[in-house]
Structures are given as C-alpha cells and as structure tokens.
UniProtKB/TrEMBL annotation:
Family matches, as Pfam families: Iso_dh (PF00180)
Membership in a protein family: Belongs to the isocitrate and isopropylmalate dehydrogenases family.
GO biological process: isocitrate metabolic process; tricarboxylic acid cycle
GO molecular function, one term: isocitrate dehydrogenase (NAD+) activity
Residues spanning the membrane: none
Protein name (record): Isocitrate dehydrogenase (NAD(+))
Keywords: Oxidoreductase
Organism: Chitinivibrio alkaliphilus ACht1
Span of domain Isopropylmalate dehydrogenase-like: 2-328
Length: 336
C-alpha cells in the first residue's frame, strides 16, 4: 500500500526518518510517496502547499505528516488547517495514555479527545485587523450538518473501540448560538446510541476536573478550538506533546500526525523525541487494517520508556533521536 509522507519543518525530517525506519523494520510492505508542505515547501517549491502534495494525498487517501511551522500572530495561514478543510477531515482524534516509567501525576491515564476539525473559531474564518491595528475580528461558524457528521462519527468510534462513556464539552452557557447548536446536536445524536453512557460538562469545569480526577473521563467530544486546548492538557497528563499522536479523519481520506510543533531550536541536534509521530503511525496502521504491527510499535515504546537509561532527553533520559530509534528497532526485531 502506498502512503503519502510529509516530513514537515524543523525536527520533522528527523522524526519522520525515525518513523520510516521503524515501519520498515516491521515489514509492513508500505510504499512511501514523499511530498513537502510548509516552510520547506515554500523554500524548495515556492508554495506552502504544493499542488502535487494535494494530488498525492488525493490518490493515496492516507498520509503521515510531520510538524509544520505556523507563524504566531502574523504570517501565512496554517497549512494544517488548509489540509483539513481541503479534504474535509472533519474529525480530529487525539488519544493519550500513560507509559511505564514516565514520571507524571497519574499513572493510569487512557483518554481520547475528539474535536470537530473544520468549523468553529479555530477554522480562522473572517479574520480582520483594522489598518490602524486597533480592532481585530474573527468569525465562528458551527453548522448542524457538520456537527451531526462529526458527532455521529464520535459515537460510532466509541462503540467500535469498546469505549463506554462520552462527555460532550461545551461553552453553551455563554456562547449560546454556536456552542449551543453543537450541544443540541449532541443531545439529538446520542439517542441513536442508547448503549453508550453520555454526559455534558462546561469546558472550564472539565479542565479543572481533568487535573483533579481524570479517571472520571473516557472519551471527550467537543468543538474545534476547545478540543485543541483540552487535548494538549490531556497530553500534559502523560508526559507532554512528545507522546501525543493525532489523526485527522474524513469520509475517504485520513492524515496522521505528531501534534507538537516543529521545534526549530533543536532541529538538526539529534534531540527530538519521535514517539508522537511513531504513535501516529500506529494509528495509521490501525486505520489500514494492520493492528498487529500497530501493537508492536506501542509495545516497543512501552519497553524503551520504562527505564530512564532508554528514554529520550525530554522524558528525563539521555538518548537522542537516532539511539532511541535504534533501541525501538532492536526491540521490534526481538519480538519476532
């Protein structure tokens, strides 16, 4: 099977190379179509999102993407947002779980955050800054059709994964039109899934409860911007964004990614932790019907993070990207 691979910017090429090495060690029989996007594409091809990259994803229907730089406060529009909207990747799935040996406040986290991926404030519609810089505006649009498509997928995913409890996070007490519509659709869709436990919580209360008692949650379902924030909070419960993968799911196309940034300050220094992209590759393998190989990646990461001497620097260890990847591959070979 052929998949599109976008190494990205900063540490992206290094962690992508590590991930390809692991996938090759698993003998998944995958063919890789390498493409560019972001600052690398702008420098090499004169476009942030080249047409041939879009064509490749359109043909393969599956892509693995490294982090892409997005300027803060100014500059070009997020390439990630453009990809999600171009292919209508309406659901963003971000699982986090505890790994043995990684020191965190909790040791039994197993959460999934699902966010509607193409609408709401995060979509960046109607952004405006007055000429004198004194007034800025942005528009949040929530549609019934978009919410229904996403929420029905969320309930179906919960059922297929054996999850039993969904909590819809909202801000409908204040954002009565947009968040209120999303909440209303959630209440309607839940009636189609009587076998699943359903709850609702205002997002700020959910943030507090995630820190105090995360065991009360199983699957969190919310809108685009709120989900972006809450999913990062959940990543903090398991060791940080270096352990957090993401999947962008559409009707016939899916892009799997590391959810952290491009970290240009450590690019080229052999310091990056490739685990997030490796775990994204495991989600990709699940998606294309290779769950056994996905399990082998996760078990290899569990093994290597269980001891301080075999962890990357960001997790309190001493290993660089290459040495960590070598250990993962060694463990995979020993699994045979």
């Amino acid at each position: 099977m052929k998949i599109t691979v976008i190494p990205g910017d900063g540490i992206g090429p290094a962690i992508t190379d590590a991930t390809i090495r692991v996938l090759s060690a698993l003998e998944c029989d995958l063919e890789f179509a390498f493409c560019t996007a972001g600052e690398t594409a702008l420098r090499e091809e004169g476009a942030l999102l080249p047409e041939k990259t879009l064509q490749s994803i359109g043909e393969t229907k599956v892509a693995l993407k490294g982090p892409i730089t997005t300027p803060v406060g100014e500059g070009f529009t997020s390439v990630n947002v453009q990809l999600r909207q171009h292919f209508n990747l309406f659901a963003n799935v971000r699982p986090v779980r505890s790994y043995p040996g990684i020191s965190t406040r909790y040791d039994s986290i197993d959460l999934i955050t699902l966010r509607q991926n193409t609408e709401g404030m995060y979509a960046g519609e109607g952004q405006f800054l007055s000429d004198d810089g004194s007034r800025a505006e942005a528009k949040s649009v929530i549609t019934r059709a978009g919410s229904e498509e996403f929420l029905r997928y969320a309930f179906q995913l919960a059922r297929s994964m054996g999850r039993t409890r969904l909590t819809l996070l909202h801000k409908a007490n204040i954002l009565k039109s947009t968040s209120g519509l999303f909440l209303s659709v959630g209440r309607s869709v839940k009636k189609e899934f009587p076998d699943l436990e359903y709850g609702e919580m205002i997002v700020d209360a959910a943030a507090m409860n995630l820190v105090k008692a995360p065991e009360q949650f199983d699957m969190l379902v919310t809108t685009n911007l709120l989900g972006d924030i809450i999913s990062d909070l959940c990543a903090g419960l398991v060791g940080g964004l270096g352990m957090a993968p993401g999947a962008n799911i559409g009707a016939d196309t899916a892009i799997f990614e590391a959810v952290h940034g491009s970290a240009p300050d450590i690019a080229g220094k052999d310091l990056a932790n490739p685990s997030a992209l490796l775990l994204a590759a495991a989600l990709l393998l699940d998606h294309i019907g290779m769950p056994h190989q996905a399990i082998r990646i996760r078990r290899a990461i569990e093994e290597t993070t269980s001891q301080a001497s075999t962890r990357t620097v960001d997790l309190g260890g001493t290993l660089g990207t290459q040495a960590y990847t070598d250990l993962l591959i060694s463990y995979i070979h020993n699994q045979k």
